[in-house]
Specification:
Elements lengths: L1 E3 L4 H6 L30 H4 L12 H22 L13 H7 L1 H4 L8 H13 L9 E2 L8 H13 L10 H18 L12 H16 L3 H4 L6 E6 L5 H8 L7 E4 L9 H13 L3 E8 L11 H11 L2 E5 L10 H20 L3 E3 L8 E6 L14 H18 L3 E7 L2 E8 L7 H15 L9
Parallel strand pairs: 1-6, 2-9, 3-4, 3-5, 5-6
Antiparallel strand pairs: 7-8, 8-10, 9-10
Helix pairs in contact: 3-6, 9-11, 12-13, 14-16
The protein binds pyridoxal-5'-phosphate.
Keywords: Decarboxylase, Lyase, Pyridoxal phosphate
Pfam family, one: Pyridoxal_deC
Family: Belongs to the group II decarboxylase family.
C-alpha cells in the first residue's frame, strides 16, 4: 500500500504546536486609510509605499541590489502582516478588462529592461490586486492562511537556488530531506519504506498511479504500453486528478470505474467489492483502488480498513489520496483543535434560518450547505426545484466578488445543485470570523428574488 501526501509545508506547519499568526495589526505599521476611485477601504500597501516610485538615486552596484532587497522585504513583510487585518478587504475586485487597463504599465512586456524603481512599484501593484489568501475571511480554497515559516522557507530556498541533484550539489538540503521524510513516515507509524516530496496533490496522485502501474506491469517502463486493459477504481466523489493520471499514464479515462458513495460522501464498500468481482469475471485487471482521505467537497474519509481488507483479498494495490485530510494522520492534538472550530460552524449553520447543512457528521473541516434568500424561505427546501436552487449560489458569489469582503466557493456535487463549501483551515480563524461569514453571506444574498416560474 502507498500513502501519498499531497500536503504542502503549509499544512505540515499547521500541525505544530506553535501558533504562527500575526497580531491583526502591528503597532504603527498598518491600517492607513486611503481612497481610490473604486474603493474607500483601508489599504495597507499604500501606507508605507504610496503609489510613488521608491527613490534609488545615489545607489549603485551591490548597494542598489541591497536597497532593492530591503525595500522588497519591507513590502512583503507588510503584506504578510496585513493579511490578518480584518478591516481590509479580501480582494479589491475588478473585471478582467478593467484590471488589464489599470495594470497595463505592469503587464506590458517592454523592450528595455525595467529599472529597480519600476520593479518595486510593479511588485506593490501586483500584491494590491491579489486575493489575500491568508485573510481570515478567505474561505474559497482548501488551503488558506499564511505560514510565516513557510514563507521564510520558500525565500531561503529561492535565495540558495540549489539543484537537488546530489549530496555534492545540495549537502544541507539532501540531509534535511532525509530527516523530514523519515520523521513523517515515523509519525504515520512506519519504521521503513520510502517517501518523496511532491509539489501538490494532483501530482502525488499521478505518482501513486505510476507506482501501481509499475507494480502491475514493470515492463511498461522499457517496452511501453502493450494494450492490455487495466482499470482503476475510485469513488465518484474522489478528486479528478485520479482520472487525469489515468489519462496521462495511458490507462484511459474510460477505464476509471467510479464507485458509489453514501450521502455523507464515503465510498460504498459493497459497491467496490461488487465492481471488483464483476471486473474479475470479465477478465479485467484492476490496477489500483484509490481511497480518499478527506474528499474535496464534503471532506469525507473513505472506509480505509474495509478497503484495505478488500484489496488484500483480491491482491490489488491501494493508494490513498491524503491531499486534503491526510494531515490529520500526523497529529492527534491538531485533529482535536480543528474539530472544535469547524464543529462550531456546522452548529451555527444547522440552526440558522435560510441555511441547510448537507452533511451533519463532518470529519475533515469542510462545512457544506445550501443557502436560501429571505423571500425563498416561505417554502421548505424539499419543495424548491433543483434548477432554481442551483442558481442561488452563483448569484450570491457574483455579489461577493464585487464586494470583496468574503470569498467562499460553491459547486454542484453529483446530482446535487450548487452548494457552498467552506473549508475551515486557516489557523488564524476565530469563531467571530465564522459568524461574520454567515452574516455577510446572508447580507449579500437575502434580497435575491424568487424566480418568476417558481
Ligand atoms: C482530495 C484531493 N486530492 C487532490 C487534490 C489536488 O491537489 P493540488 O491542487 O495540490 O494539486 C485536491 C485539491 O483540492 C484534493 O482535494
Amino acid at each position: 500500500m502507498t500513502v501519498e501526501f499531497g500536503v504542502s509545508t503549509r499544512y505540515l506547519h499547521m500541525l505544530s504546536e506553535r501558533s504562527l499568526r500575526f497580531p491583526s495589526t502591528t503597532k504603527g505599521r498598518v491600517s492607513h486609510s486611503y481612497s481610490d476611485s473604486n474603493s474607500n477601504h483601508k489599504n495597507i500597501l499604500s501606507h508605507h509605499h504610496p503609489n510613488t516610485l521608491t527613490d534609488f538615486t545615489g545607489f549603485h552596484g551591490k548597494d542598489m541590489s541591497s536597497h532593492f532587497l530591503s525595500c522588497l522585504t519591507e513590502l512583503l513583510t507588510t503584506y504578510v502582516q496585513s493579511e490578518g487585518d480584518r478591516s481590509t478587504k479580501v480582494l479589491d475586485f475588478h473585471h478582467p478588462h478593467q484590471l488589464a487597463e489599470m495594470m497595463s504599465h505592469c503587464l506590458e512586456i517592454h523592450p528595455e529592461a525595467r529599472d529597480m524603481e519600476q520593479l518595486l512599484s510593479d511588485c506593490r501593484e501586483t500584491l494590491k490586486y491579489c486575493v489575500k489568501t491568508g485573510h481570515p475571511h478567505f474561505f474559497n480554497q482548501l488551503s488558506t492562511g499564511v505560514d510565516i515559516v513557510g514563507v521564510a522557507g520558500a525565500w531561503l530556498a529561492a535565495s540558495a537556488n540549489t539543484n537537488m541533484f546530489t549530496y555534492e550539489a545540495a549537502p544541507v538540503f539532501t540531509l534535511m530531506e532525509e530527516v523530514v521524510l523519515t520523521r513523517m513516515r515515523k509519525l504515520i507509524g512506519w519504521e521503513d519504506g520510502e517517501a518523496m516530496f511532491a509539489p501538490g496533490g494532483a501530482i502525488s496522485n499521478l505518482y501513486g498511479v505510476l507506482l501501481a502501474r509499475h507494480r502491475h506491469s514493470p515492463d511498461v517502463k522499457t517496452k511501453g504500453i502493450n494494450g492490455a486493459r487495466l482499470v482503476i477504481m475510485t469513488s465518484e466523489q474522489s478528486h479528478f486528478s485520479i482520472t487525469r493520471a489515468a489519462m496521462i499514464l495511458g490507462i484511459g479515462t474510460t477505464n476509471v470505474i467510479y464507485i458509489k458513495c453514501h450521502s455523507n460522501g464515503k465510498m460504498d464498500v459493497k459497491d467496490l467489492k461488487d465492481q471488483i468481482s464483476k471486473a474479475r469475471r470479465a477478465g479485467i485487471d484492476v490496477l489500483m483502488v484509490n481511497a480518499t482521505c478527506g474528499t474535496t467537497v464534503l471532506g469525507a474519509y473513505d472506509p480505509l480498513d474495509d478497503m484495505a481488507d478488500i484489496c488484500q483479498e483480491f491482491g490489488i494495490w491501494l493508494h490513498c489520496d491524503c491531499a486534503w485530510g491526510g494531515g490529520a494522520l500526523l497529529s492527534r492534538d491538531y485533529k482535536h483543535l480543528v474539530k472544535g472550530i469547524h464543529s462550531y460552524l456546522r452548529d451555527r449553520v444547522k440552526v440558522r434560518a435560510g441555511f441547510h447543512l448537507i452533511v451533519e457528521e463532518i470529519e475533515a473541516p469542510n462545512v457544506c450547505f445550501w443557502y436560501l434568500p429571505t423571500a425563498w424561505r416561505t417554502r421548505p427546501l424539499s419543495q424548491i426545484k433543483d434548477e432554481h436552487l442551483h442558481k442561488i449560489a452563483p448569484a450570491v458569489k457574483a455579489r461577493m466578488m464585487e464586494a470583496g469582503t468574503l470569498m467562499v466557493q460553491y459547486q454542484p456535487l453529483g446530482n446535487m445543485p450548487n452548494l457552498f463549501r467552506v473549508a475551515v483551515s486557516n489557523p488564524a480563524l476565530t469563531r467571530s470570523d465564522l459568524d461574520f461569514l454567515l452574516d455577510e453571506l446572508d447580507n449579500m444574498g437575502n434580497e435575491i428574488p424568487v424566480p418568476s416560474d417558481w
